[in-house]
Amino acid sequence: MKKIIILIIGVHFCISCNKKKRHTNELLDPMQIVRDSLTTELEDIYAQGLTNGFGVAIVNEKGTLYSNGFGWADKANHIAYTENTIQHIASISKTFIGLALMKAHELGKLKLDDPINKYLLFDVSNPNYPNEKITIQHLTTHTSTIVDTKHYMENAWIIAPNQDLSNVYENYPYQRLNPSTTEISMERFLKDILTVKGKYYDKENGFLKNKPGGKFEYSNIGATLAALIIEKSTGIPFNEFTKKYILQPLEMNATGWALEDIDISKHSRLYYDLNIPLPFYTAITYPDGMLISSSNDMAKYLTELIKGYSGNGTLLNKKNYKALFTPYLSEDNFDTRNEQNPYNDEYNTGIFMGFSAKGYIGHTGGDAGVVSFMFFDKETKTGRYLIRNTNSDDEKGPGQFYDIWKKLGEYTFKLN
Questions:
Q1: What is the pLDDT of residue 397?
Q2: What are 266-314's pLDDT values in tens digits?
Q3: C-beta separation of 64 from 338 below 8 A
Q4: Confidence of residue 27 (pLDDT cuts 50, 70, 90)
Q5: In Å, what is the CA distance from 332 to each residue of 47, 216, 361?
Q6: According to the model, what pLDDT value does residue 395 have?
Q7: What count of other Cβ atoms lies within 10 Å of the Cβ of residue 414?
């Protein structure tokens, strides 16, 4: 009994010491109290049970203010989703095409008003206006008139080889996931889509009935074509170019464009719903949406974008960062524009940089098992990043996603 009493006293003493230590730390770092509070509130939102896992980050021009992960990266194997968990970020990847284009421009390899056919080994033109040149700038602002047809949706995505497919859902309804035996090169796929004799050429539906430069039409094919032009103008594969000029300088060491480039043990599973995983997959048009990254690494990237917008970036000079973040379109380029949604990234566009009507700059993303947001506020110079690994098809899923996003916004003010 004496030993038990001594043990109890000892434990109580240790707890008291720990409490005092935590109290001292809180006094020294009041922001930790705020971070802990945010963590608790995000854990409460996760507990609604509408997603398997998600990652977040909050940044300012000086660096990361908060980065964390919640839930499961692999539900069946009880692997937690953390700030170091990686998954592909969907169309936020296009902002890397924009940054890479401006780097190629800075290196003297291309000009934005160059016709795209100057760099391609095949000719691309709108059959409705065959004599009107499509320029690189048209690609970057989604005014090239190139349309994503069903052939893109049905053939671009590839199931990664050498994986167990026995308990995954392969028949994703919105974008077909194809066997690895169907994979071809990015250049060949684009040629098949965009040239008259191409396997997937669609004269009627593949191009708008407008002149190039006239109307906004979001185009994944156009974005991928811009990445191919970077390859042709620099002589460097797109993945290697972005690694050299973006990923390595920012020390985004967990990030890459292919499963072979990253630590697969840190890769989250993606889910069709809460209980059904999807296979690991990639895309022939990988630059348009397949960058694999973590919340920690994306925080570094978002910080650099804020620095660049503020004139203090490290990847481009001030002139090229200004060009990257210039909104190029007007009301005439749109049939309709959503002025009410503060995170509508298609209100205006820079060089693959979306602008909302409410002053936010960034991009959204959506893919099989992926929903992602990345924006910064040009006035406060703060930014947020959010990604989840589970589809949100029902009305509750998007609601939870926005609840998380709004909570990050609330705490951005407190942490900045």
A1: 87
A2: 999 999 999 999 999 999 999 999 999 999 999 999 999 999 999 999 9
A3: no
A4: low
A5: 45, 9, 21
A6: 74
A7: 15
Residue 253 tokens read as 């060491």
Query: Tokens representing 161?
Result: 């080889």
Supply the DSSP string of 333-396, one letter for each residue: G-S---SS-TT-TBSEESSS-EE-TTSEEEEEEEETTEEEEEEEETTTTEEEEEEESB---STH
Q: Could you tell me the two tokens for 140?
A: 């970057």
Please answer whether residues 104 and 97 qualify as being in contact, where contact means their C-beta atoms are separated by less than 8 angstroms. Answer: no
- Tell me, rounded to whole angstroms, the distance of Cα 178 from its chain centroid: 22
> Of 15-24, 37-46, 123-132, which range is least confident?
15-24
Kind of pairing, strands 382-388 and 370-377? Answer: antiparallel
Tokens 């392969």 sit on residue:
170
Residue type, 18: N
Q: Is the separation of the CB atoms in 349 and 217 below 8 Å? A: no
Q: Quick count: other Cβ atoms within 10 Å of Cβ 51?
A: 25
pTM: 0.93
